[in-house]
């Protein structure tokens, strides 16, 4: 279930702007924020609220068509640049290769036997996009003046990602270009797909996630467009709902792997050909460990 979100690709730079006045867009955004900030609907009215919110979002998406900053080519076209960038910045990249695992997508495959307790992949922290790096970036002035942004680490990372993606000189571009170009998450379900979940335990989470994402986007869109500290942000002219949803999904899907089974490699080691997926975050950098054994 779930139609994947898709990011159209062309070279980085300013996207083609849709014909829509700033006032018209701000009115729609304000209406969306008001709708998403209202009291929770009474029991049985959640679906009706979802339809109303989705209707506003679709109006906004239609008017924002063509405004995104995007890249040419496919994701795998940028893997060589990613590996070169990693090596240049001090990452250890000699124990694995990037491999397509079919339905599971791209991942790392061990190219040699790795012994228990052996450090086989090290990524310096300077390569990581973190809340700390966001504070030290062009997003820093806005971050320092908005308490809601300070309280929402995932949102900070999503905006950080969008700012760097819109900046042709960003040091993280080799990484950003290598990110998946699409996701298959509940946030991107079509309305008829969500409707199939009515009567199940899952539907409430799906409706809540959509409402929360719409509220966050509306709030931060207004903030980016009106706050003096955001006047020079690279994403100011290309901050679309689709981009925010994509960036937020990128943050969530890249964080859920942390800390699970982190002692596997220390206890057992891994064999050549093992699929390396999980990572471990430390104060100085990132250590990759195994998610499962091959076979």
From TrEMBL:
This is protein-histidine N-methyltransferase. GO terms for molecular function: protein-L-histidine N-tele-methyltransferase activity; protein-lysine N-methyltransferase activity. Belongs to the class V-like SAM-binding methyltransferase superfamily. SETD3 actin-histidine methyltransferase family. It comes from the Eukaryota. The keyword Transferase applies. GO terms for biological process: methylation. Keywords: Methyltransferase, S-adenosyl-L-methionine, Transferase. Its EC number is 2.1.1.85. It comes from Lates calcarifer. It is an enzyme of class 2 (transferase). InterPro entries: SET_dom_sf, SETD3, SETD3_SET, SETD3_SETD6_MTase. It catalyses: L-histidyl-[protein] + S-adenosyl-L-methionine = N(tele)-methyl-L-histidyl-[protein] + S-adenosyl-L-homocysteine + H(+). Gene3D superfamilies: set domain protein methyltransferase, domain 1.
């Amino acid at each position: 279930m779930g139609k994947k979100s898709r990011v159209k690709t062309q070279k980085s730079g300013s996207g083609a702007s849709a014909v829509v006045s700033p006032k018209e867009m701000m009115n729609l955004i304000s209406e969306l924020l008001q709708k998403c900030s209202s009291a929770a609907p009474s029991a049985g009215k959640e679906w009706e609220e979802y339809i109303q919110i989705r209707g506003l979002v679709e109006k906004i998406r239609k008017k924002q068509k063509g405004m995104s900053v995007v890249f040419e080519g496919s994701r795998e076209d940028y893997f060589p640049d990613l590996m070169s960038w990693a090596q240049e910045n001090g990452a250890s990249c000699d124990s694995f290769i990037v491999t397509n695992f079919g339905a599971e997508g791209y991942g790392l495959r061990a190219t040699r036997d790795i012994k228990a307790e052996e450090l086989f992949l090290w990524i310096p922290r300077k390569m990581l996009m973190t809340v700390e790096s966001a504070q030290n970036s062009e997003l820093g002035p806005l971050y320092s003046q908005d308490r809601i942004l300070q309280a929402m680490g995932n949102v900070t990372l999503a905006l950080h990602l969008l700012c760097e993606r819109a900046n042709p000189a960003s040091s993280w571009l080799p990484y950003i270009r290598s990110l998946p170009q699409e996701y298959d998450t509940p946030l991107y379900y079509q309305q008829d797909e969500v409707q199939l979940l009515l009567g199940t335990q899952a539907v409430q989470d799906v409706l809540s996630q959509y409402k929360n994402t719409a509220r966050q986007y509306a709030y931060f869109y207004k903030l980016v467009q009106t706050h003096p500290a955001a006047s020079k942000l690279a994403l100011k002219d290309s901050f679309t709902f689709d981009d925010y949803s994509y960036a937020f999904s990128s943050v969530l899907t890249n964080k859920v792997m942390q800390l699970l089974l982190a002692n596997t490699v220390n206890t057992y080691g891994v064999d050549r050909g093992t699929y390396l997926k999980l990572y471990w975050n430390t104060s100085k950098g990132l250590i990759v460990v195994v998610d499962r054994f091959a076979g």
